[in-house]
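Attaching the record inline, Q. Sequence:
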Amino acid sequence: MKDHITISQLAQLMNVSVHQLRYFEEKGILFPSYTEENQYRMYGLHEIYQLSHILLLRKLNVPVGQIEECMTSYAADDYNRLLEHSLQKVQAEIANLKMYEQFIQKVLEEHDNLTQQEDEYQIKLLGPRHLKLWFEFENGQELTAGNLFEHRPAPPRLFENDLHYLSDSGQVKLCYETTDVADYILGEGNYLYKHLSVIENTEIDYEIKQMERYVAQHQYSCKSKIVLIEKSYLSMFDNNKLQYEIQIKIE
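Structure, as predicted:
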């Protein structure tokens, strides 16, 4: 049995390309054990272990230009710090992927609920929601790109989360959910609600008046003002309309 293998055999063994092995040689981090008279590069067990080391460092996102320094001067503590740093990055990536997994599930669930709803009022039990004030609208002011930019920084993941429009002392306040100290809290309880697909703001004004009439007709005891919630992520299913929900806490 041969003690050495060719570069193509090494590539097959380690699941890399011959081009990549030549690149490592060009960068001075992997050399053949020897070169035969026919110019075949030959690699032994030592080079296989060395390549494994190189591939592990690349998996840890160490630049190729830094690998020679790692292999020649790093002590155990240096590798320990490198692994801890890589672990933190991986954990951050996992947390980010988990966040988007939850967002995708939320969009799918809300769209599924939307397709099952009829165009009528319904009641659902909601837990408490802690809201952070982003900015207030002047009387009659509508949402524009300009005031979004003016009141930067925007909430994290703008338009991936629900935006809440609250009416307070004659002013409309734009809020978003937070885990920090809240400016407003929507209490737990039963909420009368209806989904809206709108093009013009006048449609929202009309639906708010309709909800006020509905509440009065059914003699509900209201425990909050009407809240308008923008669910812009649902608009991907119909680019011509914005998606909202109007809610009011009732008994």
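Helices lie at 7-14, 18-26, 45-59, 64-73, 76-116, 145-150, 201-217. The first helix runs from residue 7 to 14.

More tomorrow.
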